[in-house]
Amino acid sequence: MKKIDYVGAGEMKVSIGPSVLKAVGVGSCLIICLFDTKKRIGIMSHAMLPSSSLLSFVSNPFKFVDKSIEIAVEKMQMLGCKKKDIVAKIIGGANLFNGLELLEDIGKKNIEIARKKLGELGIKIVAEDVGGNFGRSVYFHTDTGEVVVITTTQLVKKL
Amino acid sequence: MNIEDLDILREVFNVGSCHASTALSKLTRKNINVSFPKLEFARIEEVAKFVGELSLIASVVYCYVEFEENNHRKPFGGFLFILPQDSAVRLAKVLTNESGEGLSDLDISALKETGNIVLGNCLTAISNWLKVRFWESVPKFSSDLLGAIINDLLINFALKTDYVLVLKTEFMVESQKISGSFVLMFEREGYELILRKTRELLK
Question: How many distinct structural domains can be found in chain A?
């Protein structure tokens, strides 16, 4: 039985060795899974907002997609991973409430920023399960790099 | 903020949620049990856990509320009427007097309107008590993972603050096995208003 670690909104967890990183109830939030295919190290971060430039004061950088990615990549390099071995999978960015003025497109913005930021850092996105109007639960197996996404309709998808 | 402040907030929300339950009781013509509100000053990341089981599938009616002061609208908070999916289906069937499984369009419409009436009643009670005028947004409905819904709604708050004051009351329609909760996520201006107005009244 692999150890299961829960990653809440605004959190990031690193796993070295076999375990499952799990995020439940992902709506417009974005889950970024980074995996080193050689060293088998995985990081999952659960970010809520696209960019830290929205705020003047940032107390928790893991709330933001751009900062989370920066820190996650830095962390992996610190652990001795090479950028060319790191692959990314992004999940989430849905829009649950149609037409909730302030929230509109937050999901979409999260996805855009993640793609841009990962592109800038030279990390390849190998799989995506984004958009739509439903929530997801994400299980990231850090021994194989496999990501399992379950939606409310009990649809299971393997990335 | 001290213990007395927290008691005031809890009591005001208690009055509101009792009125809300009365409205629900009238709509369903059933007796309803209501719990005393729980309060938590939670980090954004932990609000969803306080509200309920993250992986639970639930139907949620959401209204955003503003109040009027010196001809300006200021943020008050977000009201939620939460029903776990099985309770949502049962309540919808009681309201529409129909049978069948799952939620039809009519059921969703009925739940949305019920949420609107219930939350409206809660707000009217608070409004009468504090003598403040409130503005309520059109109710939004979503039926999904509770964690996903709550975290989505929290984005509004996450832009401004790291901590949110949350109040939760649970209710139960015993004979129909329907349970659910009323939740209020306060904006800072919202709870400051309640404390200020209550102090004025107590003088």
Answer: 1
